[in-house]
Amino acid sequence: MTQMTLDQQKIRAASDLHPTPEVNFVYGTAGFRMRADMLDSVLFKVGILAALRSYKLNGATIGVMITASHNPEEDNGAKLVDPRGEMLEQAWEVYATELANARDADSILKAVDSIVAQTGITFDKGANVIYGYDTRPSCASLVKALEDGLNAAGAKPTNFGLKSTPQLHYLVRCINTAGTNDAYGEPTEEGYYIKLSEAFKTLMKGKPTLSPITVDCANGVGAPKLADFLKYIDHDVWAANIVNDDINTKGKLNYNAGADYVKTQQKAPLGATLAPGERYCSFDGDADRLVYYYADEAGVFHLLDGDKIAGLAAMFIMDLVKSAGVDSINVGVVQTAYANGSSTQYLTKQCQVPVSCVNTGVKHLHHEAEKYDVGVYFEANGHGTVLFSPEALNTIKTTESKTPAQNTALKQLRALTELINQTVGDALSDMLMVEVILAHRNWTCQEWDQAYTDLPNRLVKVVVANRYIFKTTNAERTVVEPEGLQAELDAIVSKYNNGRSFVRASGTEDAVRVYAEAATRTETDYLAIAVAQLVYDRGGGIGSLPSI
Ligand code: G16
After folding, report:
1. Which residue has the CA at smallest separation from atom 3 of ligand 1?
2. Domains of the chain as residue ranges with CATH
3. Atom 17, ligand 1: which residue's CA is nearest?
4. How far is residue 393 from each of residues 247, 315, 398, 416, measured CA to CA in Å?
5. What average pLDDT is seen over the chain?
6. Which keywords belong to this entry (predicted)?
7. Which end of the chain is least crowded, N or C, by CB within 10 Å?
8. How far, CA to CA in Å, does 519 sit from each of 300, 308, 499?
9. Is position 148 annotated in a ligand binding site?
């Protein structure tokens, strides 16, 4: 039943059940994220906000994903998904923050009124919100708080249950595009598996069968979802061994496992013993990030991160576009400041691909990638995907082939647009894309890795009294506050060969991140720790710093 206005009494009564603690909430890089025991009121208000967003968009379905992705198990969070499966429009992040910080029923109603007035919301089309959650023990009670918010605001809620983040994004887009020319797929989990598996089989046809890959699922939602996906693929076509699939033992989620651990520690996760020549990859806790790795003959660990995936994908798509005779389609790559200097050099100089650099957070990369016909975007941490513009999709769909080779390439390109989850970074879909490319190239991980050599790099987390005093500009490569810090940082960096370093407040953890790269491992370690010390001193550091 639709309603013409909000029921203030209902919101008031429900808000009393979800008191707001004295915490400064911020809708950050990936929504709200912090210790789960602080989040009850936030989820209640996310429910209200998701309803308002849907009312604003004439009842289009909005998604809410309850997850804290790579964060430790005791954290949780929520992010909103807009109708085409993309991240919440940035202007609304401000409303989300305002509402989350409204401390009592009067302030909540005032914030709601102000959002309604500012955005010109009408209520006659109703509101529809779907939601899903990851494997965290805190999800059950947070779902309840979310439902209270949705019900209080008069939305029609649909619980999609345990989902990976990219699955929820997929579902939102499918629901909103159903019955249109732009229909994205069947709005069910099964529909997602069928779409991906059919495209994968088309792309693998006639290609050498790869040896089974070992997939570390961080003891998160990726494990049961990958196991489900495997039911749609014949073992002879492709096989995967899942490790770190324990979603029931408390404390295991992301613990010494998963994409974030492998990327930041630059070593294999617990439970994976690397055999030379074999392929390994890690998902993160909500299965939206992916990194690959392998051991060389000497048993030395090598990481193939988001930068390497972007290079692999961009080159493959450029070749395919050419073979398909649609080379009017331009390909571009979007990175962040965390991209290894060597990767940017490789893409711009060797591959001659345009590269843009934007702020951390897939929402920023996604928007920038939309400017290309085919926009390949990946953060170094393995979060990313490939976007095909509507024009590019149309060209790929309607071009008629003149030769059998062109026909095959066109078919493969079409299948690739189906295989890639274009709503958001998706570990499963990205992994299948990498597997396809390796099969087409007949490459091992080691051969893929030969494209360029990463500069040694290191990420350090510094806990300070208030991370928000660190403000940046220039796609986060320059720190503007605290004043004078950049000059001190520059002075340190200038002492190192090929040195580069920057600092920024994390949007998902209570810490300032320090990134450093330099010509050698030793120089990198010294540079990272020197800059971390600087941040610690200027920011009122808490606890101890990592050592060299
Ligand atoms: C989230 C975002 C990513 C971002 C990462 C770290 O990933 O979606 O875009 O790179 O957090 O962000 P920050 O450095 O601001 O903490 P995930 O996988 O945790 O959702």
Report:
1. 361
2. 8-162 (3.40.120.10), 201-304 (3.40.120.10), 307-427 (3.40.120), 457-539 (3.30.310.50)
3. 69
4. 38, 18, 9, 11
5. 97
6. Carbohydrate metabolism, Isomerase, Magnesium, Metal-binding, Phosphoprotein
7. N
8. 19, 19, 7
9. no
